[in-house]
Amino acid sequence: MKKEQSHHEISKVYIRFLDPENLSFAIFENEKSIAAACVHLGKEYNELESFFVAVDLENKGYGSEIWNCLENKFPAQRWCVSTPVYSTRNHYFYMKKCGFKHIEDRENISYFEKENL
């Protein structure tokens, strides 16, 4: 998968350690909040529990760039993420932009995994 070149000026990243395994991030560009993410760092896998990019910045490469930063900062053999079945744009993002594979749909939730060998 081709990595996108960074062209954004992310000025600040605030990290809140909820506990040693759970982190939340607020991401800013020019003092404007542009995204947020929550990550669970597990022993067997990491999980992207939530991920938001400001609506006016969607489809401009921010999500891919932020995902690449998270994946590089917290390497894991396996990453997991889930999203509602109806969120097809999320499915596209995780599979086509981030390299996840669809595992299953259960109770209106789609589950995805990414193996890093």
Anisotropy-based shape? globular
Strand runs, count:
7
CATH structural architecture: 3-Layer(aba) Sandwich
Which spans of ≥5 residues are poorly predicted at pLDDT below 50? Answer: 1-5
CATH class: Alpha Beta
Judged by helices, strands and strand pairing, the structural class is: alpha+beta
List the total number of helices: 2
Radius of gyration in whole Å, from Cα? 14 Å
Largest sheet: 7 strands, mixed
What's the CATH topology label? Answer: Aminopeptidase
Return the string of H and E elements: EEEEHEHEE
% residues in beta strands: over 45%
Mean pLDDT: 87
**Lateral strand order in the biggest sheet:** 1-2-3-4-5-7-6
Number of domains: 1
Keywords: Acyltransferase, Transferase
Pfam family, one: Acetyltransf_1
EC number: 2.3.1.-
InterPro entries: Acyl_CoA_acyltransferase (IPR016181), GNAT_dom (IPR000182)
Description of the structure:
The chain has 117 residues and is of the alpha+beta class. It has a single domain, classed as Aminopeptidase. 19% of the residues lie in helices and 48% in strands. It is built from two helices and seven strands. The chain has helices at 62-73, 88-97, and strands at 10-19, 22-29, 32-41, 46-53, 78-84, 101-106, 109-115. Strands 1-2-3-4-5-7-6 form a seven-stranded mixed β-sheet, with helices on one face. A hairpin with a 2-residue loop joins strand 6 (101-106) and strand 7 (109-115). The longest helix has 12 residues, at 62-73. The model is unreliable at 1-5 (pLDDT under 50). It comes from Lactococcus nasutitermitis. GO terms for molecular function: acyltransferase activity. Pfam families: Acetyltransf_1.
